[in-house]
Amino acid sequence: GQQLNQSPQSMFIQEGEDVSMNCTSSSIFNTWLWYKQEPGEGPVLLIALYKAGELTSNGRLTAQFGITRKDSFLNISASIPSDVGIYFCAGQVGNQFYFGTGTSLTVIP
Amino acid sequence: SQTIHQWPATLVQPVGSPLSLECTVEGTSNPNLYWYRQAAGRGLQLLFYSIGIGQISSEVPQNLSASRPQDRQFILSSKKLLLSDSGFYLCAWSVGITNEQFFGPGTRLTVL
Question: Is A41 part of the contact surface with chain B (CB cutoff 8 Å)?
Fold first, then answer.
């Protein structure tokens, strides 16, 4: 399957700090998706991006679909303790979705 | 609105026993359905996906199988579980127009 490189693998930040994570691929995708997963639960869709260059916000979250269609980033502003979890990127092409390896976020109060 | 159900939520099974995990989707028609396995809270591995009743694509050859007896029902099975089958199994659905994928709550399987 296609490989998505997600970085960083983990982050430990102070409450109130901003967070940035990204995904890159050698392949082009039609859609980029960002998910958050909490322990013992299924991933929850945060943001979906449909067009190259698209910048979308959802509250304190902002994500962008890279111009080349091979990358995407997710920013979280003013982090709070409930932002803790694992964040996954995913690229969609056809009926298939390919996932990054996840970024584990820890927020220190 | 659409919802996706998985059961059981947790399962402990001995090696060599059979397995049946069920996933159902409500509120949509003709969904694409997916089974993933996740080990140690990271890395989603696609096992099977289905674009319609009776149509199953296998991504990883192993001792698991999948079936789709109804439009909104997807079942993951095994005749004989291995220790390596332990993990967190996630069902997901998508509909072509939105190109978004939504996950169920997952089943935690422990094989002893």
Answer: yes
